[in-house]
Amino acid sequence: MWFSANTIRYLHSQTPFLTEHAVSALHATGLKLGALPSSLPASNALISTYSQADILPSALHVFSLLSHPSTASYTTILSALSCHGRPYEAISLFATSASAVAPDAELLSCLVSCCRHASTLLPARAAHAYRIKNVAALAFYASAGPALVALYASCGKVGAARRVFGYMDGLDMVS
């Protein structure tokens, strides 16, 4: 089958050149061939492509068609919502469906980034606490560390920001 997640990933790399019509035609082809929504990688790539092409309603629609979204699906849609200036909606989506998946470091990092954009401390602290109990520290702090430091510092939690910074890999020159 020529239509796969790799097909969408390739087209996703061409997103600046894709029109709404082209992405919709790609979506229609995937539906006709039965690759969507049954293939999570293809669906996630399509969600990301719609988002990159500034067609967020269609990205949300594709996500809503997933019967059992994966952790990567949630990461993709939360990132799309945050990139389109809707971090509160992303946090709300995560809160209402948190029991559907076991968050990994990438999903928690995306959630912390959404919290930073929304200047909302409580969900970020909950994600940080979840990490302490369930996710490898190195993976979490490598991806979520800078956003968590920035959020804690902007909320006046300098001690917490300093502790998180201390856990981060010393090779991160930006932080």
From TrEMBL:
Keywords per UniProt: Repeat, Transit peptide
Gene Ontology terms describing biological process: RNA modification
Domain of life: Eukaryota
Gene3D superfamilies the UniProt entry points to: Tetratricopeptide repeat domain
MF terms in GO: RNA binding
Pfam families (alphabetical): PPR
Keyword Manganese in record: no
InterPro entries cross-referenced by the UniProt entry: PPR_At4g14850-like_plant (IPR046960), PPR_rpt (IPR002885), TPR-like_helical_dom_sf (IPR011990)
Keyword presence, Transit peptide: yes
Protein name in the entry: Pentatricopeptide repeat-containing protein
